[in-house]
Amino acid sequence: MSVAFAIQTPPAAAAPTRCTGCAHLPACQAAGYGRPELHGLRCIAERVGLLRDGEYLYRPLTPFHAVYAVQSGMAKTVSVDRAGRERVLAFHLPGELFGLDAIWQGQHDSAAVALGRTQCCRFPFAALRDLATRQPQVQAHLLCAMSRLIHRQHLDAAGGSADERMAAFLVDLHERRRALGDTGALLPLPMSRADIGNHLRLATETVSRLLARFRDAGLLRVTRSGVELLHLDGLRRVAT
Questions:
Q1: Nearest to 46 by CA among 3, 108, 89, 84
Q2: What is the pLDDT at residue 2?
Q3: How many contiguous H segments (helices) and E segments (strands) does the chain have?
Q4: For residue 146, what pLDDT is reported?
Q5: Does the predicted TM-score (pTM) go above 0.90?
Q6: How many CA atoms within 13 Å lie on the side-chain side of 65?
Q7: Separation in Å, CA 143 to CA 53, 150, 155, 171, 226
């Protein structure tokens, strides 16, 4: 997604950035952070990690102090109800902000968990709020990030057959990766089949069966690390 401290940001041309030398900078630049008007965000970013698979970035009821973006790898956010049942809310790719939902109540009501080896950037909220009041472009970026999250949640909550939901999930993940500059057909899936099923409200066995069905139809090839999309237009037709 506070410790009160003010950040005085020098002019963009001379401002130091904590992103200098980061091997993952191109992905974040593709996500929009390379724009000059968002230079201030790069100045307040703090690196977090390296997290290993299954390690928590934050847990439910953790006090809210910052929002986060994946730097490399992938993370999932998970809610837990009173009965202890988990629901996978979203999967987050490099450059995608998350933790924003905790702003209004001052604590996280979900958990953020690493999927595979994952690094994140942390944006302290006190510094982020100060920056947004002085730079309307940063405020607009945050509003767009919130809007994207809401839009994706609406898509995830939409009805449709199991085939449609699974195809839409793969197409959406591919398009988000393509926006980061990854134009390859290989789609890494570091999350488990159970996580995908939980997120899409499908049984784990149904996820495996759908992948096998899509494979037999020539739409994809299942690999050890994910899937290779062989017929993207075909998947889009299934999704709609």
A1: 3
A2: 35
A3: 8, 9
A4: 78
A5: no
A6: 11
A7: 30, 11, 18, 24, 32
Q: 110: which strand partners?
A: 79
In the block, residue with structure tokens 């109800």: 81
Beta bridge partners of 91: 76
pLDDT given at position 26: 60
Distances (CA, A) of 204 to 84, 163, 170, 210, 211: 19, 14, 16, 10, 11
The secondary structure element, H or E, covering residue 42 is helix 39-44
Amino acid type, 147: S
Domain ranges of the chain: 25-156, 159-239
Name the one residue in this structure whose structure tokens are 């790069």.
Answer: 42
Regions of the chain short of the pLDDT cut 70: 1-38, 153-159
Q: pLDDT tens-digit profile of 166-177? A: 999 999 999 999
Using N-to-C axis directions, what is the helix angle for 193-200 and 162-179, rounded to 10°? 110
- The class level of CATH for 159-239 reads mainly alpha
Average pLDDT, the chain: 83
Q: What is the largest CA-CA distance in the chain?
A: 58
Q: How far is CA 89 from CA 68, 79, 157, in A?
A: 16, 7, 10
Fold classification of 25-156 is Jelly Rolls (2.60.120)
Q: In CATH terms, are 25-156 and 159-239 the same topology?
A: no
